[in-house]
Amino acid sequence: MSSPAKKPKTAIKTDRIAIVAADFDEAQAALSQLTQTYGAVDPQEADVIVALGGDGFVLQTLHRYIDRKVPVFGMNRGSVGFLMNDYLTDDLLIRLANAEPVTLYPLRMSTKTADGSTYESLAINEVSLLRQSYQAAKIKIQVDGVVRIPELICDGVLLSTPAGSTAYNLSAHGPIIPLNAGILALTPISAFRPRRWRGALLSRTAKVRFTVLDAKKRPVHATADDTEIRNVVEVDVHEDRAASFQLLFDPETNLEERILKEQFAT
């Protein structure tokens, strides 16, 4: 999901609100309180979904209802809450009406495993490949059909969207990317060889292929957000503009500003 675009301000319908929550006490208590105050409909019938939990839960909610193209307004009842708004019980309808939408375009991961099976998944944050055993992985990297790294010896490698650049990508010392930069971050994870390679910035139109070398001896698994595929031998990744997700944010704490502020964090 590269180059998310903030849509022009449009009124968010609030006639039919669904409220969903993660399965832990704080989120469930908030679910009970908000449902009693505002009522709720089934997510399949809603104009907007309010998701109560942490970043992981809002990602799961976006994936679960992607076919409905319904906007999601997250409220933080977890820990980090980078993709969430503050949890407040008052004026929810007003907040929804004034919320700023951000459209996120995901990465599409296509994998082939050692037994010949193929799988496809979408990633809002990143696609990552990680070693599956005690031995370092060996991975060949191609970009638009050109071999750029013949053999990366590493714990793994990831391709991140701008929205995901402050998550696992940042932990792996990858760059923070502004939302509308139109680029993706290709970041190694604990690279041993080439020792000085620190990754690359790619156009959002780039098509990346990861080929696992010596896959039987050095098995690798691939993940797209919370989907994991084990024993992969080849992984293709590109931004999928045919798919999209919409998150809603309070104007004073919109996602674009949060990502910008992360670049100046001390």
Describe what you observe in this structure.
There is one protein chain. It contains 5 helices and 18 strands. The two termini are 27 Å apart. With 266 residues, it is an alpha+beta fold. It has a 6-stranded mixed sheet with strand order 1-5-18-4-3-2, sandwiched between helices. Helix content is 16%, strand content 38%. Mean pLDDT is 92; it is low at 1-8.
Please report the distance between the alpha carbons of the first and last residues: 27 Å
Q: Could you tell me the number of beta strands? A: 18
Q: Which whole number gives the mean pLDDT? A: 92
Instruction: Walk across the major sheet and give the strand order.
Output: 1-5-18-4-3-2
SSE-based structural type:
alpha+beta
Question: Quick recap of the structure?
Answer:
This protein is of the alpha+beta class and 266 residues long.
